[in-house]
């Protein structure tokens, strides 16, 4: 599956380990890269629907309602 990013900054953070670590921290960046690998390996969206959720907590405080990857 082809993955299209909203911005070059987001694409760089997702595709370069050091940039992702800087933006989201090591553990979160690892999870983002894992999910992107799963999406890239999927042939259709039907396959994506069967991937277990990432089990991340809901955003709270000032981050509530914002996009978690930005």
Largest sheet: none
Number of strands: 0
Rounded to an integer in angstroms, the radius of gyration calculated over CA atoms is: 13 Å
Classify the helix fraction into a percent range: 40-55%
Beta fraction: under 5%
Mean of residue pLDDT values? 84
Low-confidence stretches: none
Give me the secondary-structure topology.
Blueprint: H1 8-15, H2 17-24, H3 26-41, H4 45-49
Helix pairs in contact: 1-2, 2-3
Concise overview:
The chain is 53% helix and 0% strand. The protein has four helices and no strands. The mean pLDDT is 84.
Can you walk me through this structure?
This protein has 70 residues and is mainly alpha-helical. Helices cover 53% and strands 0% of the residues. The chain contains four helices and no strands. The longest helix has 16 residues, at 26-41. 6% of the residues are buried.
Features:
single chain, 70 residues, mainly alpha
